[in-house]
Queue: 4 jobs
Job 1
Amino acid sequence: MNFTTSIGRRFKLEQIIFRASIAISETITITLDSRNGASYDTILRVKSLSAEQNYVFVPEGQNNFYAGDELNITTAGGAVLGTLYCTIKTREVLQ
């Protein structure tokens, strides 16, 4: 999986939920794709799953992102035979 969001507004990241149709062994990387360019991209979490079907990432502290910031989610590891679902929950920041 290699997915980049296209939220296009200011937002607060609430959580990212991963569900697999079968137990998988993968490494998930969640990265801030900064609006200011690649020099400002930041890895938010790297999580290695071992024969697991579910993972929930809940960021700590203030996680307010600006319009133009996006999230990139990648997996690396074994060949997934099933399906991996990813749900990204955000809240709009109005100020």
Job 2
Amino acid sequence: MKKLFLLLLFVTSVTFGQIKIQPIKVGWPEKTATDLMVRVLPFETDSKTCGLYWELKTDSKETLGNGNIYLTEEEFTAWAADNRYIEDLALCRLILTRKIQ
């Protein structure tokens, strides 16, 4: 039970906000995605890897696409304390570009 509590505490602290991306046309009918949301999927405290859940969204927060990305052991180890690493990894895997404000 203690392990589950620690896991829930950890997971709630690594949900990312919306990442602004360069607009991209998605779907049929075609709509424009402008945001990427990334959330770490639950994992055990002794895990060597984890998964990410992502959603592509419009300016009005409509979800246009979603899915999972799984980190390799090397990527999981490289994550360390820098959450921007996870954002950049998701952007790279999805072939998206962060919008420079």
Job 3
Amino acid sequence: MRLALIPIIVLLALLPYCSNSLCSCQGPIQSVEIRVGGDGVATVTLVASVDAGVTAIELPVDPIAVTIDVNSSASSIEWMLEDGYLYIASPSQGTVRVTHIANASIENDVIMLNVRTNTSVRLVLAPTIVLLTLPENIASIKTLPGGELEIVFTEPTTISYTIAQPITTITTPTTTTSPSPTTTTTRPTYTQTTSPATTTSTTATTLPTTTTPSTPIAQTTSSSPITTQMLPIPLSTIIAVAVIVIVLAIIIVLIIRRR
């Protein structure tokens, strides 16, 4: 099988110097999908039919050559990229799946893709992609689960898009001012106790003054004149004093008479 591919490989080497008429046919593209990720990178996937021999497939979007990946239902194939065409040498008829990253142009944060095919193209955009131009001849538009946008169109067009910038919300902290505490100065209140005047054998005028029960003497305050308070004499004390005086008088009289 590999020996049968040697003439085909030689033919591929001569393709740059030959016309496309040397190819057995131009492979019909069955489907094209362009998927734009959140980073703005567009990945192109196409499925095409190939015959035994060499088949030329015109790529709908210019590729980055080193990213091309070709998978085939045939046992083994060889391929070469030349002037936007992918030449595939296959030992038998089958289908190929070609995947590559699109070679897009960028200007002022705007990304542009040139799509050149009349085959139905399925364009899938990530939620962060903002489409700036709509394709021509749109067949359908719908939103996929996850927020992706799907557009199906069927004509060559230029797709322009950009990446949405995240919105930054600046939150200003709110400062709550607590009310200032009110300081209340409490002055001490002095209570004056006025003892009622008591009428005894000796009459005295008593002014209102603050007294201490445990000290039976007059108190002197700086805010009032000095006041002498006379305490009442109990009747028993008077009688006792009178008896003592009488006894002393009798004793004195007796002493005098004896002399």
Job 4
Amino acid sequence: MRTPQSHTARENPPSQSTLEDLRMPVAAAERLDPVREGPRKAIMKLRSFLCALTAGLSMFALVSPTADAAIGPKHLQKLAQRQTQLLLQNFSDGDLASPSTCNEGQSRKGTKGVFLLPTRYDYGGDSGDVTFNCKVSTRAVLLDLGGAAATEDANPGSLWTLTTTQEKLRFTPGNLERICDDVLNVFYLTPAAATVDGQPISGTRISTPEFVATVRPSATTLFGDSQDVGHPGKLATSFCGWKTTLRLKPGRHVIVVHLTDTTQNTITYNIFVQNSHRHHGHH
């Protein structure tokens, strides 16, 4: 389970949960004393965002349907899946956010009229502020406000303990959505603090059905996981967290998101929305 970005919950999660530190590998979760260590914000082997939408129809055999219901509007679930695919497809070791530039992996026209903004990814324990300068042709952008992605692996010792039943689940297809639902209800009780042009914004809780994400060899652990499960470069994944779609007028806008784990990290988007009705050469 790897976390993309995370923020500190404003409420304390249940003390009985055996949840991992944001900056630990998931297997370490089982070694934590939840009372002595205290519940910590976020998850590391969760994460937690456009690869080719044709990520191989045959790959859907990797993803087993589950009884757990996804959370949130379906159109937002689909956008969250695509944003997570975009993140994982472009992530390399050492990246603080992915993609590393706004237009990597997608055109200025975005996905179905919505531009998918890059996502902060607390994967290797790195911290720091990130700034993006984005030029888009859409009037809507998808913003991540904290979340995680559960990705599959073949390690039998990589387990998640459900806080509701204490059942231990491996990170395998068929379990990922259940794990992500649990994480959402424990760690992501509220969205990260964020503003657009100085005005506070909120978001919508999202948990997605499992889907297939592409990972690159330069993301060594994720790619290693994909090799271990027998389909190099592909991982079954589920996203859980907070998203919001912002409608922006043509012109310049500034979006700021404050994500915190053990330290506070700020991600800033300087966005210029092009006026689609404007003729080239006019200023």
